[in-house]
Amino acid sequence: MELRCLSPKLSFPETLMPRCPLLTDLAQQAQAVWASPEQERRRRLWADHFNGRTREVPVSCAMFQGWQDLVWQQIIPEETFVHKDGMARTLEVHLRHRLWRAEHIPDDTPLDPTFVLHALPAMAPDELWGVPVAFESTGQAGGAYKPVPPLQNPADITKLRAPTFRADEVVIERQREQVHDLLGEALPLAARADALHNGPFEWAVRLRGMDNLLLDVYDRPEWLKELMALLQGAIVAYHREREAAGFVHVPTERALHSPWDDCQPGDEGKLAAGWGYLHAQSAASYGPGAYAEFVQPYNVEIARLFGKVYYHGCEDLTRKAAIICELPNLREFHVSPWSQVAPIAEALPEHVVMEVHSHPTNVLFLWGAGEMREELLGLVRGAGEHAFNLKLCDIQTINRDGGRALITWSQVAKEVAASCRTGSP
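RESULT FIELD:
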């Protein structure tokens, strides 16, 4: 299947007559924002940042875009949506979220109007790995859940099979037709179908359970390495299959953490032109030695697939940064509020930028502008001369303020960023 990303348009061809005036208007607004000089500045800033062409400090208030996120229900009340279900509802959410963000959040995150068609088919619980990957849940929206690991005995590893990439092209075409019926060709489209993502250790947790993995390090280390090698090889093969099938789309796979980057025409479908997202957050309880032996080697071959790698970890990565920095193609490193900025800045190579995070709970529920500024200035001092960006993420809910804390943090972060570094390297 050929994957196309349609070029943005500011007007509709005469032969195309969109059928929904509301969605048409929202799409035109989004395209007008996209084409503005300010949006061009933002896109160029991030591309320059990731490619060592500037010393400016980008700022990103990273808001999830899924319609089910509580924060969006608090900002844009459910009853204000005109469309209540179906593709029309999905498109209205997609556009209104992005337009609200572009209008109200004064950071450097670009508005990308691209609408993603979700192409994963329905799967049986045992389709991916040959064993059931199931969860226990409260059944309530936003409630707790936990995986039910199928590899209860080490011998169960023989039941595993490597996943095969599969996409539902009938569903994609149906979605494409629905969007066309509502909007013509007013929005760029891309298709996504990725059931595995990039982190083998998190699959080990789902399949074996973290309690068992803590013991496996001591009781059966070679077995654990066998499991990790199997997962690594399967993920690499799966993404190669995904690429061959035309379901890599570089511009929309950057997500929250690399908001924009260069992509040469013709490279949109190549893994080697895009960003990989690596992580092993559940290994927080592994010390640096265990991490180096049982996690890091199995991220390496996956990292080689991508032109640039973002490493994520909300846990304390201070003592692991010197290990993780050896990943091939590493370009951005997550520095959580529980990590120490200065030691990580010292450990990372110069070309790896730090994504330096404010503490979301304090920002969203406790602090005013003064406390936000004090924290940000401390983070900047810790970063020293190392390249970094300032980030607020994990925004799942807000303190009944309509998004005011998000706006305040973005304003303060922009002021701090402007005062600490400008210009070219």
